[in-house]
Amino acid sequence: MSKLLVSTTVNGDPQQFLCDPDTSLLDALREEMDLTGSKEGCGSGDCGACTVVLDGKMVCSCLVLAPEAEGRQVSTIEGVAEGNQLHPIQRQFLEHGALQCGFCTPGFIVASKALLDHNPDPSETEVRYWLAGNLCRCTGYDKIVRAVMDAAAELRQDRRTAA
Amino acid sequence: MRLIVMPPFDREFFGGKDTLEIEAPTLLALVDRLGDLSPGFAEQAEARAAFAVDGVFAPDWTRALAGAEEVVLLQRVAGG
Amino acid sequence: MNAPENKQQFRLVGTRPVRPDGVEKVTGKAIYGPDHVSPGMLQGAVLRSPHPHARIRGIDTKKAEALAGVKAVVTGQDFPQAADKLVAGAESASNLRWVAQKCMAIGKVFYEGQAVAAVAATSHAVAEAALKLIEVDYEVLPHVIAIEDALAEDAPVLHDDVFTQGLAEKPTKPSNASMRFAIERGDAKAAIAGAAASFTGRFTLQPVHQGYIEPHACVAQWNADGQAQIWCSSQGHFAIRAMTAGILQIDIASVRVHPLEIGGGFGGKTTVYLEPVAMLLSRKAGRPVRLTMKRTDIFRSTGPAPGAVIDITLGAAADGTLVGAEIELKYHGGAFPGANEVYSGVGGAVGHYRVPNASIVGWNVLSNIPTMHAYRAPGAPQINFAVESAMDELAARLGIDPIDLRLKNIVHPGEPSASGVPLGAIGYAEALEAAKAHPHWSSPVAPGQGRGVACGAWGNYGGPSTASVKLGEDGSVLVTEGSPDIGGSRASMAIMAAETLGVAYEKVRVTIADTSSIGFSMVTGGSRTTFATGKAVIQATEGVIEQLKDRAARTWGVDVAAVTWEDGTAVHGDQRLTLAQIAAKTGTTGGPISAEAVVDPHDFLPGFGVHICDTEVDRETGHVLVKRYTVVQDVGRAIHADYVEGQMQGGAVQGIGWALNEAYVYDRSGKLDNAGFLDYRMPVASDMPMIDTVMVEVPNPAHPYGVKGVGEVPIVPPLAAVGNAVSRATGIRMHDLPISPDRVYGLLRAAE
Q1: Which contacts (CB < 8 Å, 24+ apart) does range C554-563 have?
Q2: How confident is the model at residue C196 (pLDDT cuts 50, 70, 90)?
Q3: Is residue C81 very low, low, confident or very high in pLDDT (cuts 50, 70, 90)?
Q4: Which residue(s) pair with C218 in the sheet?
Q5: Do residue A129 and residue C261 have CB atoms under 8 angstroms apart?
Q6: To the nearest whole angstrom, how far is the Cα of B56 from the nearest Cα of chain C?
Q7: Do B78 and C340 count as a contact with CB atoms less than 8 A apart?
Q8: Which has the closest alpha carbon to C48: C34, C59, C35?
Q9: How far is CA A29 from CA A55, A57, C43, C464, in A?
Q10: Which residue of A42, C61, C129, C595 sits 20 to 30 Å from the alpha carbon of C699, by its own alpha carbon?
């Protein structure tokens, strides 16, 4: 089986990698690009630990074939902070203690950012349903939901200040 | 000194007796003596038994038992 | 968000600083079990049995070995450990004979998904292809799954050398009932016969999984000189070392286990499944080998918590005083003997109440499913579901408020605990009073809803831990410990060290060291880490303070007894030297400052919780929605309040999942039918309300900051809290878990 050469953009940077046709985007990120922040919890799209954004759309990277990334934009947890400047969602997760083991955290943060990028003022119910594809076994979700709500408020405030 | 043998050790090693009158200078010596009473106990005790001396857990089996009134022998229970 | 009032006697204890490992974990930099890479690493894969019970007549690995890229193949025949051998590592010992077979079948398979062979190859694809070339000749045997089936006269007996332990008379026939454990006091039957009210019922539960999101994974490297390294995530790398070295019969000192970040464990990561296999592959291949489980492997081959069949009768006098309990509980044991849950199930059944007459008999029942492994308060939630449901029925029958009924019967400090040892400074009554005073309890129950309450307890633990504290030349502080951080414990250790030393939290950095770099520390489990490892950290910090005072005393030429340590500063009269000033001079005052402490404390105290739950039942679909949930718990004292609340919330939601959704479902051929997160339905964010928490603080006097341990208690009450709420919403007693829509629908239709 010969390998495919895939050219894509990950967190704004051009990337090229070789992969088998049936390699998942998750495996390509983790094994070919050393971006191990995206996690595999199930490999079947049920846990959300591998959540990335592909051309603006939130996806489970374990359900996307790596060759599908050809010519497209991929955003992962490694691109959420700007350099050493944490995103407000990341900071709110820390301030709320919204992680215990932290394994699901990258997926939750990427998913939360995808939510707030298109809905700056979600209700608690909207947050809970948006994040229903992400499993967390440690926290019971309480502090995660609070962190996302507070990050949303902070981002709205930032926007008002900037305007 | 009174030894209270909690389940399952009472049935498993001492024919269902849950109280023994027994003297020993230390818990280590007590384990040896119980091993004499019931062959096989000493080996199992190493991995399974816990002792409380007069109401306080005693993980150090070199502890002297002089003056102790009651020792409880119980099964260790695992947590998650 | 019920932060305790900071009573001002502490600067840092009880506050909520950002955890030291936080930034790495929110940016994706933290390295977990499946993330570690060793140079030249091979990829491994494991072949698993499709049969729940079979004899292995032979395994032909020749074709697999011949495949290009395959570097090693191992089977059960490569395992040296086959005899009984007990090793300690956690609170209770494990028999390596059985632990080895949880890693790989030796001659016989006892459950679907048990490993039978493994391959290491140059790529994952080659390893998977090689598995397909391995030929296993199985003689399929009759299997048994359910508890009652396994106890039937004609049931297939799993082991011909397992006889029921704990019988007065030594049995002559082997049995699937591997153990009987009982507590008898007074005359339960007579007491119940004379009771003003009694309740009798049978309760059933199915096996459930711990459900950590991180799969088991490891990299092992076993060199020709006999020395080995393992990189893995676990709840205790010293336990991984002990079991791996024991199974492979090599020296403890030759195995160095590096703890990676752990993505959840809940008790399930206190044993080995992959490590000895990866070691054997590595020795054969001469290269490091990675093994990772798929989610389906995790469900099929790692420790679930036991299902149960519980028969209970509770009797009470007219004023609510409990007079007798008659209980028989049968717990799943899985494929091999050694599961511990029956001990805590029997011991803890009514351990949180005074019951003068009790007959509590427990059985560990083997069948063709994976061997049970610890899951948060192992053995307690199952029996608590039956006991607290029965308490709810008694309250209703006697017309007594359910919290008042409990207050009337609870154990108090000084009274004997379940283990026979008197209880210390417990805060059970305080927790119940706090629940009674909570606005949730006094709020009106909304129409169509039901409110349930339940109590629960866990003994907690202490045990061995090692920590060292070293000063940097600039006065910053390095804490090194051996307890994996599963939920913020680095932050708690830093708080306790900084509080003791009198320095800022940010001046303290915490490292969790490998097995060759710090002394033995028991697993992170049993709600022991903040208590026991915390004591080690505090003791080592006090050792550093003694040295600091000594340096100051010698600098001033005064007696060290005349020097005190106040807020990070050595003080003698008007003279003061700060920690940083002393640290800067260590080069000319006797060299670097550090101290190590090895502790083995057993003055831990149990924890008690009270949960209040409101549910709404959809009468059309049978769906149950949790509308409001409150967790009240005696936590001793919270070191980092966020992570204490987090334990209470997370434990409660695991318990709610157990009550409403989660269950292992086996088909007729003995195969697990729902070995994935789609069909094994754990709670998601949209299923849950906020989980309100009340931290009741009754400090443990044996810990410098009052720690008791909080992690396990919160999974104990939710099963009955939810069950009681649904029973009150529907008027139908919930006897069987999970309380899934189809079950509720059936009960509602039958009642019409």
Answers
A1: C554/C589, C554/C590, C555/C582, C555/C585, C555/C589
A2: very high
A3: low
A4: C232, C291
A5: no
A6: 7
A7: yes
A8: C59
A9: 16, 17, 17, 41
A10: C595
- CB of C413 within 8 Å of a chain B CB? The answer is no
The domain locations on chain A are 4-79, 88-162
CA C60 to chain centre: 39
Q: How would you class C628 by CB atoms within 10 Å of its CB: exposed for 0-12, middle for 13-18, buried for 19 or more?
A: buried
Q: Please report the pLDDT score of residue C419 as a whole number.
A: 76
For the stretch C121-136, pLDDT in tens is 999 999 999 999 999 9
Tokens for C511, please give them.
Answer: 């490292």
Pairing status of strand C465-471 against strand C477-481: antiparallel
C-alpha span between A52 and A29 (Å, rounded): 10
Cβ neighbourhood burial of C217 (10 Å; 0-12, 13-18, 19+): buried
Residue with tokens 């209040």: C612
Residue C18 forms contact with A (CB below 8 Å): yes
Quickly tell me which residue has 């434990």 as its tokens: C651
Are C649 and A101 in contact (CB < 8 Å)?
A: no
State how far the Cα of C578 lies from the Cα of B63, in Å rounded to an integer: 41
Q: Give C425's contacts in chain B (Cβ within 8 Å).
A: none
pLDDT value of residue C2: 43
Helix, strand, or coil (residue C716): coil
* CATH class given for the domain over A4-79: alpha beta
**Which residues does chain C have within 8 Å of residue B45's beta carbon, measured at their own beta carbons?**
none
Beta bridge partners of C273: none
List of domains in chain C: 22-30+462-599 (3.30.365.10), 379-460+605-751 (3.30.365.10)
Type of residue numbered C329: L
Domains of chain B: 2-75 (3.10.20.30)
- Residue C134: strand, helix, or coil: coil
Q: Where is pLDDT greater, at C752 or C73?
A: C73
Give the pLDDT confidence of C446-489 residue by residue, as tens digits.
999 999 999 999 999 999 999 999 999 999 999 999 999 999 99
**Among C180, A116, C214, A17, residue whose Cα is nearest residue B11:** C180
Mean pLDDT on C663-684:
98
pLDDT one-digit tens code per residue, C552-590: 999 999 999 999 999 999 999 999 999 999 999 999 999
The pLDDT tens digits for C493-509 are 999 999 999 999 999 99
β-sheet bridge partners, residue C324: C315, C357
Domain A88-162 CATH class label: mainly alpha
Alpha-carbon span C523 to C87, nearest angstrom: 14
Minimal Cα–Cα distance from B10 to chain C, Å?
Answer: 8
Give C284 to chain B, closest Cα distance, Å: 33
Tokens of C744: 């509720």
Q: Which two tokens stand for residue C187?
A: 């005359």
Query: Mean pLDDT, to the nearest integer, of C401-422?
Result: 92
Closest partner residue to C600 among B59, B76, B78, by Cβ? B59
Label each residue of C562-622 as H, E or C.
HCEEECCEEEECCEEEEHHHHHHCHHHCCCCCEEEEEECCCCCCCEEEEEEEEEEECCCCC
Residue C456 CA, chain-centre distance (Å), reads 16
DSSP letter string over C246-262?
Answer: HHHT--GGGEEEEEPB-
Mean pLDDT along residues A9-16: 98
* Mean pLDDT computed over A50-72: 98
Considering Cα of C481, then C486, then C492, then C498, what sign does the dihedral take? positive
What is the interface pTM, i.e. ipTM, of the complex? 0.98
Cβ proximity of C502 and C470 under 8 Å: no
Distance CA C42, CA C120 (A): 6
A110 phi/psi in degrees, rounded to 5 = -65, -40
